[in-house]
From TrEMBL:
It comes from the Eukaryota. This is Uncharacterized protein.
Length: 1173
């Protein structure tokens, strides 16, 4: 009972202690960064009280509440019935969560009672916790980044095969978040953002979502808020139309209609300022789908809905064909259209390929300008010029060929020159960065509220352009590739391939920076007050639009205080086994003795083998395969061992092999029990050669990394340098393995950076030459391996330099980032200062204490020169090396001529999250392990080494994501300080319009003025067209029908449509009549009919949205715009009375009959009910 009582005491001491509140620091020391320590208001002070110790129940009270109880979150009086009900409900939830946690913890104590008694004493190496051996930072709230909403926790890669998310898009009202995946689209209702969400399945716990029927992979999305639809472009060349979900009882939904838009994949889409849908594909293909055809398809009755695809498909306008038909040729016409962007203010559309841009007129659909990433405009050459140029090149080539034929160079000389020339060309191209300007390729394109266009490149460079394609400014804050850009308000968010997220102002100054994900950020979108970042691993996190700011510090503190509410504990056992098989094969009985009997009560089995297969030819070919990163599945001998171990573990019915890796003679395999298979994934493998100049795999390590219950565990099978005196070489081998083992997948050679092409060239040379050298010349082992090592070492050095070039000075090795690392293998450390006979005597007497003092590994670990901070159970079994085969018992030790001194060569060491042995498992120390069994199988005689096994008991603390999301929502809605901050941030600046009724004559222009009456805050405005209606007898004869994405009719020009209004300033908007509306009907890409439509009976309703810089709350102002062709037909304008009390400027025209809107929820009904007087 003593162990049980001690564990319970530890439990309650941890509950009664105040959790560590992380020091928030999201950026560098740049003077431009916002300080997170200075709130600027003492109301945000979170200094903890020290008058009494913080007890268990005290931790769940709302520290921001003045009376010490929970706040109601209603914003009203504290004594209301609703407030009391909310108080009781919130208190009940917290008590339920706490009691569940205590029940789990007490059950864990009961279950671990015997394990605490069985845990073996351990030897701990010195030097841990410093430098590259520093433990990874773990906390309930990450201390190095702002608090985030775990909208979709990082799912296991194995569960996402065929359905990875690739794009994000939010609706204009922020109520829905859409995503395109490899199997369709899915949508989240943001009203459910804080709910517990879906039941946990296969290790996932994401928010509730709806998913479409299965489709071809989705490559792009565009939202049409005006018509409440979402367009998706797919790899099969189709465009699909989806209705924004109102409510759905089914888990899947279908598209409204779809059509074949391109022969190749639909890479990009955008809706122009006139409501037309533009789509881009491979080879410079850009097609416009006129709004008139899209509208016709939308309005088809249900019985005729099957005609919609053909109606739209026949209406296409092929811009590439139109340009080439006019005799124009340029580079953009052959480049893939990766990005399309609509500039509503300038009525232009931008298209971008990897290295160039094109500017199009959205009204006439004409090509205006082509320019490259340096801003240099390209001449739009005609076909005649191009033909002349080609003829000149052909003539020059013909003359050169004749001269070469007349030369008298010998065949061998020409062959030599050709080979050397090819090699030189490969090196020159590689020096430029794989394929020239590939590192400068465009990866992101956005337009900001001030009308500027921003682009991000693969080299981390950000460039700002004006609306006419003139390069204005460039800046670089990070050297990783930019994957995506997003803008909201006065900020630009930058997502990098390193997982880093940056916030910039519109001048390019850095406001904040932190690592948001563990993989590249591939897309971002804004919805419901958050900017959501999508990582390449499928995880989605939501960040407050006001980050960085005072809200972050409060959220960090409150979330940390409530960590018990969302902590979940797991327990499992690991069997780790190592065996140097000396190129032999074991009997089934030997495997049962080693693994079978011990695997009955464990959940994970990790096996490391050494010397599975050796030999000069095998090692040379293994080096070639490693250099080219091909054929890594292993040899036939390795497969035999995996199959036999799988048979021993009853693979299939009891266990499942999650991964394996072989490097020459080293092999690692990991099996997990089927009962926990759904919680294990993200399997990655790695190999590090250490033999012959770190080039050959006769020595080195193979590793496997896995994620279980959200935590990372690595298994590393090592085989270090042999011989008694090679201690320093063994230490160096470990150091090399620890520093360079990388589980990241090999880069795509076609998109690799500088140095990858010579790597490929040398790899091919090694693959053929090393093996031929051995076959043709019959070279012995050393000569062959030296030859292979000479070439492979150069390749490994090139690869390592390229990999390390992407790491910053502060980056730690990947093994340092794991929560638990298990090293197993033939480390080859021997016994010092002891003779063969002395060792045999001590072994026969089982006097292992004295022998351990001679152990080289313990001596080096104590000195802090190897396995720094690692743990090993105290050894109580005889040395495992070296034995005569098939001789049982201790009499089997080497008795030959060499009489090698017995040694503990075969070992199992580990490191978990504990900085101190007394630490218990919690979210700050999530993985705590102990050794229950550490022994050698002395009865196995199939090799000169004895197999060793070690059984770990692992306690793991993880986050219950649905509960944390719910707790996060409770903090947001109930904390008084947070509510006050959000209310301040949601304030919309007071703005007025000069008029709400504009009447235009032919080609007339009217000026609409917007005045920002706020003396402190900037106002952001956006002008959209709610729709067009028909007027008869001065009465509205039809409702307003919006064009695509609230686009403007073609007879009306509004400039600018977006902008920033400084405090106490005015902005002028030009509203211009462009004459009669010219309509065209396209059939199969050709214009069939063209006519002019009289717009005198048309009226449009403009809506001016005004909002603040860090909020999605808006206010709307409506302006009617109608056309009259004569003054006599013009109705008398409404009388306007000046209001001197609200006059801000002498020439301000105050808007008449203004009705203020309170928010986005009630504006739609008001807009529908407003009629023309």
């Amino acid at each position: 009972m003593a162990a049980r009582n001690h564990a319970v005491d530890d439990l309650f001491s941890s509950l009664n202690s105040s959790p560590a509140r992380p020091q928030v620091n999201f950026g560098s020391d740049s003077p431009n960064l916002i300080s997170f320590d200075d709130d600027g208001d003492e109301d945000y002070d979170n200094t903890p009280t020290t008058s009494k110790p913080l007890m268990v129940f005290d931790r769940f009270y709302d520290s921001s509440s003045e009376d010490g109880f929970y706040s109601t979150g209603s914003g009203g009086g504290g004594g209301s019935t609703g407030g009391d009900n909310s108080l009781v409900h919130a208190a009940g939830n917290r008590l339920d969560y706490m009691m569940q946690y205590l029940d789990r913890k007490l059950l864990t104590v009961d279950g671990k009672d015997n394990e605490l008694k069985q845990a073996l004493p351990e030897f701990i190496g010195s030097g841990g916790g410093r430098g590259m051996f520093k433990l990874p930072i773990k906390a309930a709230v990450h201390p190095d980044r702002p608090p985030s909403l775990e909208f979709r926790p990082h799912p296991l890669r194995e569960t996402q095969i065929g359905c990875f998310l690739r794009v994000l898009e939010g609706t204009g009202d922020g109520r829905q978040l859409w995503s395109g995946s490899e199997c369709g689209v899915r949508v989240w209702d943001m009203d459910d953002v804080y709910t517990a969400g879906m039941e946990e399945r296969e290790g996932e716990a994401e928010a509730l979502f709806y998913e479409s029927v299965r489709t071809s992979p989705t490559l792009c999305l565009v939202v049409d808020d005006g018509n409440k639809v979402v367009w998706s472009g797919h790899r099969d060349g189709k465009i699909r139309c989806w209705k924004m979900l109102q409510s759905s009882d089914d888990d899947s939904f279908r598209e409204c209609f779809s059509w074949q838009a391109h022969r190749g994949p639909v890479l990009s889409m955008v809706i122009s300022s006139y409501g037309d849908l533009w789509s881009g594909s491979e080879g410079g293909a850009i097609i416009v789908w006129p709004w008139e055809a899209l509208e016709k398809a939308h309005l088809l009755p249900r019985e005729e809905k099957h005609k919609a695809p053909s109606v739209v498909a026949k209406s296409y306008i092929d811009l590439k064909n139109q340009v080439t038909a006019n005799g124009i040729s340029c580079s953009i016409l052959s480049a893939d259209v990766k990005y399309l962007l609509s500039d509503h203010s300038g009525a232009k559309v931008w298209s971008a390929g990897p290295l160039s841009f094109a500017l199009w007129d959205a009204y006439t659909r004409e090509l205006l300008k082509v320019f490259n990433i340096d801003g240099l405009a390209e001449n739009l050459t005609t076909m005649q010029d191009l033909i002349a140029e080609e003829e000149s090149k052909m003539k020059f080539a013909s003359n050169s060929k004749k001269e070469k034929l007349q030369s008298s160079i010998s065949f061998f000389q020409r062959s030599r020159n050709a080979i050397m020339g090819a090699a030189d060309a490969v090196l020159r191209v590689a020096a430029k960065g794989a394929f020239g300007d590939d590192s400068r390729r465009i990866e992101a394109l956005i337009i900001t509220i001030d009308g500027m266009i921003w682009t991000g490149s693969a080299n981390g460079l950000i460039v700002k352009w004006d609306a006419n394609g003139n390069r204005l400014q460039d800046f670089q804050h990070h050297y990783y590739a930019i994957c995506c850009l997003c803008t909201f308000g006065l900020r630009v968010w930058v997502g990098y391939a390193s997982g880093t997220l940056q916030i910039l102002d519109l001048d390019g100054n850095l406001l904040g920076e932190w690592v948001a994900h563990g993989s590249p950020i591939i897309d971002m979108a804004v919805a419901r007050g958050y900017i959501f970042t999508l990582a390449n691993d499928g995880g989605i996190r939501g960040w407050s639009l006001s980050t960085p700011g005072p809200l972050d510090k409060i959220l960090c503190s409150e979330s940390s205080d409530r960590e018990l509410l969302y902590t979940r504990l797991e327990n499992f056992k690991i069997l780790a086994g190592t065996w140097n098989v000396a190129q032999g094969r074991a009997t089934y009985d030997s495997l049962i003795s080693w693994l079978g009997s011990a695997a009955k009560d464990v959940d994970i089995v990790a096996v490391g083998l050494q010397e599975v297969e050796m030999g000069a030819g095998f090692l040379a070919m293994s080096a070639a395969r490693e250099s080219m990163q091909v054929g890594l599945e292993g040899s036939s001998a390795g497969q035999w061992w995996l199959d036999m171990i799988g048979k021993t573990l009853d693979e299939g019915s009891s266990f499942h092999r999650v991964g394996s890796r072989q490097l020459a003679g080293m092999l690692i395999g990991v099996w997990v029990r089927n009962t926990i298979r759904g919680n294990v994934g993200d399997i990655d493998v790695a190999a590090v050669p250490c033999g012959f100049g770190n080039a050959i795999g006769n020595k080195g390590a193979v590793g496997l990394r896995m994620r279980i219950y959200g935590r990372i565990i690595c298994f590393v099978n090592c085989h270090f340098a042999a011989h008694l005196e090679a201690v320093n070489r063994r230490n160096a081998d470990f150091d090399h393995v620890y520093k360079t083992m990388s589980f990241s997948r090999a880069p795509n050679l076609l998109n690799a950076s500088s140095g990858m092409l010579p790597y490929l060239f040398l790899s091919c040379f090694l693959a053929t030459s090393s093996y031929s050298f051995w076959i043709l010349y019959g070279s012995p082992l050393v000569s062959t391996l030296l030859f292979a090592a000479a070439v492979s070492s150069a390749i490994q050095t090139t690869r390592l330099e390229n990999a390390m070039a992407t790491l910053s000075v502060d980056d730690l090795p990947e093994l340092s980032e794991a929560d638990m690392v298990v090293f197993l293998g033939d480390f080859n450390y021997r016994l010092d200062d002891i003779s063969y006979d002395e060792a045999r005597d001590f072994i026969s007497q089982r006097s292992f204490d004295w022998l351990r003092e001679k152990d080289q590994l313990h001596i080096e670990m104590k000195a802090g020169t190897v396995f720094q901070g690692m743990r090993e159970a105290v050894i109580t079994f005889p040395p495992t090396y070296k034995f005569e085969r098939h001789q049982p018992g201790l009499a089997g030790y080497d008795s030959g001529e060499k009489k090698r001194i017995p040694a503990w060569c075969d070992r199992v060491l580990y490191r978990d999250n504990r900085p101190d042995s007394s630490d218990i498992c919690n979210l700050n120390c999530p993985v705590v392990a102990s050794v229950l069994q550490y022994e050698a199988c002395m009865d196995v005689t199939d090799s000169d080494h004895k197999p060793v096994r070690c059984i770990f008991s692992v306690e793991l603390a993880r986050v219950d994501e649905p509960k944390r999301r719910k707790v996060f929502g409770e903090i947001i809605t109930s904390n008084n300080k947070i509510r006050r901050i959000l209310e301040e941030q949601c304030n919309v600046p007071d703005a007025i319009l000069s008029t709400n009724n504009i009447i235009l004559q032919d080609n007339d222009t009217s000026i609409l003025r917007i005045t920002n009456r706020s003396g402190e805050d900037k106002a952001l405005f956006k002008v959209i067209c709610e729709g067009q209606c028909t007027i008869k007898d001065r009465k509205q004869a039809s409702s307003h029908h919006p064009r695509g994405a609230y686009g403007f009719p073609r007879w009306l020009e509004v400039k600018p449509t977006v902008g920033i209004i400084e405090p106490n300033h005015i902005v002028e908007i030009s509203v211009h009549h462009q004459g009669y509306e010219t309509l065209e009907e396209y059939v199969d890409g050709a214009s069939q009919n063209q006519w002019c439509q009289d717009v005198r009976d048309k009226e449009v309703m403009l809506v001016v949205e005004v909002r603040g810089s860090c909020t999605t709350e808006r206010k709307w102002h409506r302006v009617r715009v109608s056309h009259n062709h004569s003054l006599s037909d013009r109705p008398m304008p409404m009388e306007q009375k000046p209001d001197n009390s609200t006059r801000d400027h002498a020439n301000v025209l105050h808007r008449s009959d203004i009705k203020w809107m309170t928010g986005s929820r009630d504006v739609v009904d008001h807009l529908r009910d407003l009629h023309t007087p």
